[in-house]
Amino acid sequence: MIDHVDRALRTSQNAVVGLHPAIDRIIQGLTRAYALSWISSQAVATRLRHDAPIHPARLFWVDPEAIQRTVSWTRISADRKQDEHARFRVPNYRLAGRVFGGDWDRRDECFAQSTIFQSFVDHFDRGVPWEQTAFYEESVAAIEKGATLWDCQTLAAFDDRCNELDRLYERISTEGYKTQAELNDRTHPIAAVDRLYQSIWGEIAVSVGRDGELVFVDGRNRLAMAKIQELDVVPVVILVRHSAWQRLRNRVARGEIVPAELPDDIRRHPDLVALN
């Protein structure tokens, strides 16, 4: 049932986008309301199940180099979702605040091996034109097969997208890395519920593996740029926590484990520091 609602909302958005501003706003409002209701229900569920609090939209500032492995797709194709771990193929709001067991944090895929990261290095570090990167070639091939990538359904739209990436890279370089809230406050303040929604969708998203490893989920453009520019820290949201990691957080929250007794890298983990 939930999957049917998700598909219906996404299909409606794709079908009516651009038809009329009022219709766009209605569909976007319905999607946002549904996503926020889902996130809120998960927040209530986690409070009942776990002693250590989980705040789905909380920002954590982390070293981008600490994010190495990924459960997200590494290549670009019309069926790129098949590249992801099965549990992570749903929209981000369906993952926010969840606790999963299993082997999802033990995959061998590395962010540095992804098409986007390697192509961004070629373009931004080595001056290779977009048209000569694997990112461009694979994206155009997928669009020609009927895929919609980053709201692009035509080559012209994708070229505009590449120009936007150039502007984003320059803004980060000259103005520093901005959170979604900071970017929106430039134009007008937004409501708290909208900040939550935009954090889940707009910030770099990671999950935490059983040993505390930060595993990439979404926000590949921003993470790639942060790595290339060698930024010290970037804001991220944590979507999923491995059940073993959450058990450790619960024991710390209950006082059964004293953080000072943990290894330094674990004791200083942002997801544990937040419990102090």
What is the global morphology?
Answer: globular
Helix content: 40-55%
| Rg | 19 Å
Share of residues in strands:
5-15%
- What profile does the largest beta sheet have? 5 strands, mixed
Residue-averaged pLDDT? 85
Continuous helix count: 12
- Derived from helix and strand composition plus strand pairing, the structural class reads alpha/beta
Number of strands: 5
Explain what you see.
This protein is α/β, with parallel strands linked by helices and 276 residues long. It has one domain. The chain has twelve helices and five strands. The chain has helices at residues 2-16, 21-49, 92-95, 115-126, 134-144, 155-175, 180-185, 192-202, 220-228, 243-254, 264-267, 270-273, and strands spanning 59-62, 98-100, 204-208, 214-218, 234-242. Helix 1 (2-16) runs antiparallel to helix 2. The protein is globular, with a radius of gyration of 19 Å.
